[in-house]
Amino acid sequence: MSAMAKTIGLILLMVMALATPAAPAPPQRVLKVAYADDVVSFDPDNAFLLYGLEALRVMYQGLVQYEPGTTRVTGWLAQSWSVSPDARTYTFRLHDGARFHDGSPVTAAAVMAYFQRRATPTLALSYFLDNVASMSAPDRLTFVIRLRSPQSTFLDRLASPWGPKVIGPGALVGHAGGDLGGSWLNEHEDGCGPYRLTEFSRGYRYVLTRDPDYWGPRPYFDRIEIDIVPSISQQMLMVRRGDLDVMMNGYPFDQLAHLPPDLRATGFDDLGEEMALVNPWHSLKDRKLRWAVLTALNPAGWLADDFDGYATQARSLYPKAMIDAPRPVVFPGDLAAARRIVAAHGPVHLQIGYGAEEGATQQRTAELLVSALARIGISATVMSMPTDQEPGLRDFPQRAPDLWLARNYPDAAHPGTQADVFFETGAPLNLFNYSNPSVDRLIGAAGQITDRAARDRAYLAISDALFADIAFIPLADIKDVIVYRADLTDLGTRPALPWGVDYATIRRR
Amino acid sequence: MIPAPVLDIRNLSVTLHRGAQAQTVLAGVDLAVAAGEVVAVLGQSGSGKSTLAYAVMGLLDPEARPRIEGSIKVAGDEVIAAGPGQLRAVRRERLGVVFQDPIGSLNPALRVGDQLGESLGQRPAIAAADWLDRVGVADPVGVLSAFPHQLSGGQCQRVMIAMALAKRPALIIADEPTTALDVVTQAQVLVLLRQLAREEGVGMLFITHDLGVASVLADRCAIMHRGRLVEVGAFEAVIAQPGHPYTSALLGARFGLDADKRHPLQAAGMETTPASAAGSATGCGFASQCPLVTEACRAAPPPSSPARHGGLAACLRTDEVGPQIWRGAPEVWAPVSDAPPNLALEMAGIEKAFPGRGGRRAPTTVLNGINLRIRRGESVALVGASGSGKSTLLRIAAGLTAPTAGDVVLPSGAAQVVFQDAAGSFTPWLSIGEQIGERLRPLGLSAAERRARIEAALALVGLDPQLARRRSPSLSGGQCQRAALARAIVVPPPLLLCDEAVSAMDMGLAAAVLNLIANLRRKLGMGVLFVTHDLAAARFVADRILVMAAGEIVEQGEAETLIHAPQHPETLRLLAAVPHRSAPVLALARS
Amino acid sequence: MNAALAAAGRRPIETTIFAVLALITLLALIGPLITPADPILRVDPPFCAPSLAHLFGTDDVGRDLLSRVIAGVQITWLLSLLIIALSAIVGGLIAALGALAGGWVDAGLDRLTDLFMVIPSTLIAMAAVAAVGPGLSHTVGVITVFWWPWYARIVRAELRSVAARPHVEAARVAGVGGLRLMARYMFPAALPTLLVTATLDVANVILVLSLFSFLGLGAPPPTPELGAMTARTLVDLTTHPWIPLIPALAIFVMVLAANLAGDALRERMEGL
Questions:
Q1: Which CATH code for domain A30-236+486-508?
Q2: Quick one: closest CA in C to A250, which residue?
Q3: Looking at beta carbons, which residues of chain C come within 8 Å of B438?
Q4: Which of C7, C166, C175 lies at the smallest CB-CB distance from B419?
Q5: Closest residue on chain C to A375 (Cα)
Q6: Are C222 and A371 a contacting pair at CB < 8 A?
Q7: Cα B116 to Cα B106: distance, rounded to the nearest angstrom
Q8: What is the pLDDT of residues B417-466, one digit of tens each?
Q9: In this structure, what CATH number is given to the domain that contains residue B546?
């Protein structure tokens, strides 16, 4: 046989082999979901995810978690824990039998090794462990953390969706690289949760597959297929067609009343409150003008037109799920007086800004605010800014928008996490550098209170002070809406888990 | 029994619309053409002769919404209001057409053989080559495979004639078919047409403004003026004894090599008005220029009545028509200016070569060592066939092109130019008064002074000063050329350059303009350089004639001497090509 | 006057087109003065279907859609005309300058025109507007910067063909100098083509302007700009179709009218 014939024969053989379909697989239970944005990284210590949080919590597990539907902390990897009387030592008793996906067992030593990695200052979420003085693993299943000073938010931080999630030695040691496994962990995982990351195609699709060796209760779905679909309209089409099972975020509120019969929508309170931050450095220097603006922005005047009933007026500067204030803030109601102030002041033009990635929901709200301001004679325009420009707002307050619409999520369900994100001097989201020493003192004092009712009262006082200063304007508590196929149930939503369902509990009827 | 005419036009009237205006372009035309007969339709621009041809072809511009009345029968088939299918059949089988622009009338994308084949229908290619041979094409097989742009104008026109004849039509319409050709080719094509008409027995309707051209092949002639047929009859008879004052004026405005230089040419009755004003007059259209005019003439258009030459004439006083009606006191030339005869132009050793195309071909030499001197008050004619370089030499003198070698000196100042395309030399959106006044700008005159000078210049060239406000599209060709002259002389130049200034005009108009140029030369003491291919015009206008061929001056001399005793073969050729119904032309055609 | 009306009656389609064009321009000029409601104020609950109270219904914020569309027509139409006018002026001037100066100036300007035509203009323009910030004047300026080369090209071609014509030569012989020759004898020859091109171009500019707003550049909200209005409310197409459809329809009508007018104008010019 000639060389040519042999080559052709070989090629034909190869083609036939590739073209032969594989033996049919047993029917799998697949859940199809979609993200509108790509995931930055699946490293639980290094990224502030929103899309992807729910995937993270089924690949990895933390010591504690929030119970579904509540803000009560319950055990996870730790089956129990105790706090010392001086509130500085936390002792956790781990479950026996948990294993990482690399096969090694979950021991206190492994947990401690992970926590040490988490505390490395170069990692973005390391500040969760800022107050940790020392850790120890006295026996195989006991893990002890000693804090420098009492921290009432500590347990909530451990339960936070961005909180520590134990990474196995397979990654920390086996793939350490030079950066504590950072680059490997962007696209791979070594957790101990019910699902493993079996496919990572950046920008396109991720696939989680059920770990058959999982030590805990078996979840219903064998595969979770996560597609990246940037267009909300396309996601809507897909969910109607059945190409998506769940749409976790972004379904337009005004369309929810027109869902076809095979889809359902559920709204739950989450920790993201809609707020307006006031820029006092520019056009709103004048306190009387700020008061007029506050009067115009009273949500009672416009909220009914927005969110189609899935939002209620905010009662304080804390989300309802965090603190349900008994006495809501009261907006001034004298529109005529507001008009007079504006008329006396002369022509005012304000700019309302918001982050571009929130465009879909915020733009309509912003335009409603423009309309509300127009009623007292203030003209306003709306500006969306890319996220990476937000830090610039503090550097150039004169050029920054006069009002900033935001719906940000605190780290956990404890009001202290809201205060130290927004209200403290120098807080990361205190975009207009609001600084009030008495408020800082109140925040410091409130952080020490352990009794829940007293603590809430203290934090509410802070909210009242800020409202009186017209620095932060509470607008609305918007429900987190999930659209899903009617045959799904046990979604497992939690206030502290924005845009997410619990893959470990969700199942088809 | 008289055979039926191949073309029978009865009482044809055509009205065209331009925008909102309606305009009668033809009125009450009766004409018949028999098989084998050549009828020449003669008239100036605006007479309606071309419209007549288009009406017969059914090709009047639909945008103008033509209204046609009367009857046109081609070989017995009625053409007016015929359905499109019937019209197509007539055009395909009964009618052949030869247009004015030979290269433009052929399809540039098809080879000649394919286009000729369309006319021949199913007949084989041999027939095509035969036809080309019959029409006198030198290399029939080669031409068949060529594209139109590869052929000369004369060859293309022959191809068109072949195409027209090859389908054996009953009638051929030729619309100024030789105007775009040079004189020698023109003579050949005319003789060919006559010969073929006789041999094939087709009737021919030949449209032209040139009596000399018509004289070569016309059996009968039909004279048109302002949309009406004013005279029809046997050609020789009409020429000998015209029955209408207009025909007599046309005949009088001819000038040949024997025109009397002591007096201005007869140019009476030759005024044409622009198309928009034609056809709106009641009564005879010639009334405003007719020496025999009466009140009856102005009341209603005179009917056709038998004339002394055996045909018909539309004149109430047809028996009184003759050359004597135009003779008043003989016109005299203007007195010669007494400006000193300084040198106006000196050209020495002029050479001009155009660079070869694409760098590979050798440069084309257009002028090869020309010397020329002209004084003020002196008139020099540059004569030659197309391609001799005469126009290039004029452009060098005008400063529009630079010579490759040699010197051009204008010691008395810059020269002015009059171009062949009179209307084209004016910017259509500016008034002619303004354009004439451009030359006055550097003088720093006041607006009133400028206006006065412009009006004086217009009067000097015989135009109504009111026309200063008009724009060139609303003026006739003759008026435009006069205006161009006005522009040239509004500040009298030492030298006037005329580039084929009368070549595009019909004879009557040409006579008027030549008179004007000669008069202006005398009055203003200008030097004149007159470039033309027409020796008759050159002789009339110039003191000296220079004959050019292939970029060189082959003969020069005093005008009269050169005409009567030519030396160089080129001069002989040019002399013979002056259209005239005489032996030399026929001899040329046979050679 | 009668003759004009008679002429108009003879060409019904052309007359209709020009009438529509005149109507749009009229609306653009006086529209904002006659809107039934303030285009920015929320006047009634959002998503009201078209009714007698609100001929086009209310949009997703509760503003009267009719008023917004009228105001939007003003912005889109007048801005498009402005951009075209500026581009034609700049392009025409550059072409005239090149033709007047000749030589290396002409060659240089021609290469410059090439450069502007070749760069991915829409992308650069979007980047530029994103950098200097959205806003109507910025958008107009940036679009003009990449729109003029087209006109420069056209005018240059016309000027070159006119330069060879006999009447220009005759004028030169008569002593008409450079600037006056260009201004009075040559440039007017380019005007018919320029006019026709401009009319046909209006459609393009409207679409580009809408594209910019669609992408979030252009006028900042709450300014009613038809492209932005369509883009933002596309999600409501299946449930409240009038909200995105009516602004899109307004764009369509303007573009169609401009295109047809350009065609009619071109036919008339060709008859000249």
A1: 3.40.190.10
A2: C235
A3: 171, 174-176
A4: C166
A5: C41
A6: yes
A7: 10
A8: 999 888 889 998 899 999 999 989 888 889 899 999 999 999 988 888 88
A9: 3.40.50.300
Q: What is the 3-state secondary structure (H, E, C) of A348-405?
A: CEEEEEEEHHHHHHHHHHHHHHHHHHHCCCCEEEEEEECHHHCCHHHHCCCCCCCEEE
**CA separation for the pair C113, C115 (Å, rounded):** 5
Q: Are B351 and B406 in contact (CB under 8 A)?
A: yes
Task: Map tokens 């050798």 to a residue.
Answer: B362
| Nearest-Cα residue of chain B relative to residue C177 | B438
Residues of chain A contacting C48 with CB distance shorter than 8 Å? none
Best CATH choice for the domain A274-480 from the list 3.10.105.10, 3.90.850.10, 3.40.190.150, 3.90.1580.10: 3.10.105.10
Those residues of chain C whose CB sits closer than 8 Å to some CB in chain A are 38, 40-42, 45-47, 60-63, 134, 216, 220-223, 232, 234-236, 238-240
Chains A and B touch each other (3 or more Cβ pairs < 8 A)? no
> Which whole number is the average pLDDT over B194-219?
87
ipTM of this complex > 0.85?
no
Looking at the fold, whether B164 and B284 belong to one and the same domain comes out as no
Residues B354, B377, single domain; the answer is yes
The residue among B325, B353, B376 that closes a domain is B325
Quick one: fold of C2-31+63-271?
MetI-like fold (1.10.3720)
The answer to whether the CB atoms of C46 and A384 lie below 8 A apart is: no
The CA–CA distances, whole Å, from C242 to A308, A381, C56 equal 19, 25, 7
How far is residue B580's CA from residue A81's CA, in Å, rounded to a whole number? Answer: 130
| Cα of A358 vs its chain's centroid, Å | 13
Contact C184 B430 (CB under 8 A): yes
Structure letter (DSSP) for residue B411 = T
Taking one residue from A and the other from C, the number of pairs with CB-CB distance under 8 angstroms is: 62
Q: Which residue of C lies nearest to B428 if distances are taken between CA atoms? A: C167
Tokens of A134: 């020392």
Task: Mark yes or no for CB contact A368/C40 under 8 Å.
Answer: no
Strand, coil or helix: A486: coil
Q: How deeply is B275 buried, as exposed, middle or buried, from its count of CB atoms within 10 A (0-12, 13-18, 19+)?
A: middle
DSSP H or E run through B221: strand B220-225
For residue A233, give how far its alpha carbon lies from the nearest alpha carbon of chain C (Å).
6
Residues C79-138 have pLDDT tens digits of 899 999 999 999 999 999 998 888 899 999 999 999 888 877 677 777 877 777 767 788
Tell me which residue of B252, B529, B480, B526 sits closest to B372, measured CA to CA.
B529
Task: Determine C/B contact with 3+ CB pairs under 8 A as the test.
Answer: yes
Angle between helices C242-271 and C187-214 (to 10 degrees): 170
Assess contact for A189 and A197: CB atoms under 8 A: yes
Those residues of chain B whose CB sits closer than 8 Å to some CB in chain C are 19-20, 63, 398-400, 414, 416-417, 419, 421, 424-430, 435, 438-439, 441-442, 484, 487
> B383-417: per-residue pLDDT in tens?
988 778 888 899 999 988 889 999 999 988 889 99
H/E stretch holding A276 reads strand A263-278
C155 to chain B, closest Cα gap in Å: 18
Give chain B's domain count.
3
User: What is the value of pTM for the model shown?
Assistant: 0.69
Distance CA B508, CA B504 (A): 12
DSSP letters of A148-177? SS--TTHHHHHHSTTS--PPPHHHHTTT-T
CB < 8 Å to C172, chain B = 400
How far apart CA C105 and CA C99 sit, in angstroms, is 9
Residues of A in contact with C239 (CB under 8 A): 254-255, 258
Beta strand B364-375 pairing with B343-354: antiparallel
